[in-house]
Amino acid sequence: MSTDFQRVVNSVGDLPPMPAVAVKLIELLQDPNASAGRLARTIAHDPALSARVLKIANSSFYSMKRQVRTLESAIVVMGEKTLRSLVLAASLKGMNKSFGLLEKMLWEDSIGCAIGARIIAQHMEEVDTEEAFVAGLFRHLGKVVLNYSHPQEFQSLMQAVYNGEGSLLDLEGIYFPYSHALVGAAVLNKWNFSDGLVQSALHHADLDIDAEEEPAILHLAAVVNVAGCLCQRLGIGQREPAPHLDVAESKGALILEFSSRYLEEIEKEIGRTFSENREYFLG
């Protein structure tokens, strides 16, 4: 871990736990000899997580032609990358000490952006759909971490934003030494996620990524940026929708050269898909 990321993690203190089963699964997925049965047995050690994974697998979001009844069949039918997405999505709710209104909004924001990023990536060759899903899922991990480690300060920050005292980016420096983007990136780095996911979390808003040196990471972060903006318009994870937000002028849309008409179609698809599958992910 870089010195800067280590300093950020140390400043946060109490980190939300990555479920042990998720950690073990990610390790196993790096083993080319790991069988579907072995992966299934690992997930089965956490019955609640297993139930959520199967529930999400059978949602319309994954469009299975037949019901998936066992973890092993889910792995065979859906593939290992999708399995990782499922386990991480199913684990997200557990990264909270409590689950009140603020946590529910953070969860909806994360799942909505994950769904949106995956839908956008399905229309592109440059971005892997499951990598986009996970990048969207963890785009605001820093918010989850700060709410977990310093709930009073984070809730005061969010209340100030809701009261119109300034934007999140303007105000978070008053309450915390590091931005939520930097905190999220540092934690993903500590958890040994790929550099693409780390950089996407770090630059999901500013997209300050070299287009010549890291084109794949820039495209990934741009997809997440657009998905996040569309969720804002729809009011997913927000107190209310932002219908006047011009997503076509967002940094991600300009980089990806998305037209207003295309974005309107994607927005409808994201809204419909989130509405249909919300309860499957909430579990």
TrEMBL record:
Residue ranges of every copy of the HDOD domain listed in the record: 15-207
Pfam families, A to Z: HDOD
Entries under InterPro entries matching the protein: HDOD (IPR013976), RNase_Y/CdgJ (IPR052340)
Domain of life: Bacteria
Name of the molecule in the record: HDOD domain-containing protein
